[in-house]
Amino acid sequence: MIADVSDVSASAHAQDWIFDELRFGASASVQSGGEREDGVFPEVTIFFDPFGSDSAANWTQKLIRPRIHLGTSIGTGSEATQVFSGFSWTADFNDKLFAEAGFGGLIHTGNLDEEDDRPALGCHLLFHEYIGVGYRFDTHWNVMAQVAHSSHANLCDGPNDGMTRAGVQIGYKF
């Protein structure tokens, strides 16, 4: 009887996580010329699943039940640091391969005007979107290659060079 209680407690504890997944990795700018950012950008993203995306049975349920993401891409040197948030959708090709897309917004510490050799971003609040493909090693660990873009879509005054970064992240799903 005691073994049954501990099994139930361990199972309940495993499902009490506040967040669904943690990813960490690095990216680099894929832009050219004066829009290019130098260096490598360490990244951390936390995913939440308040709508039950993990229990969705088909693609239409996945579409209306996205996960929420919150993350940062840390600027090295004098490049822009980003803090972003939004919605993420995952499409499973099989048990191992998946694709993911996300859309939301971000705030950054980058250059607003064309005063130096960094992207001129126009305003501090930008749209943020990403796409990626991933591979699951098991039920917990995965790796994902992604491309993320941020810009203001010409909705604020000033230049709109945007930031486009590509990188790799390792994820742990709770």
TrEMBL record:
<dbReference type="Pfam" id="PF09411">
    <property type="entry name" value="PagL"/>
</dbReference>
<dbReference type="InterPro" id="IPR018550">
    <property type="entry name" value="Lipid-A_deacylase-rel"/>
</dbReference>
<keyword id="KW-0378">Hydrolase</keyword>
<dbReference type="GO" id="GO:0016787">
    <property type="term" value="F:hydrolase activity"/>
</dbReference>
<protein>
    <submittedName>
        <fullName>Acyloxyacyl hydrolase</fullName>
    </submittedName>
</protein>
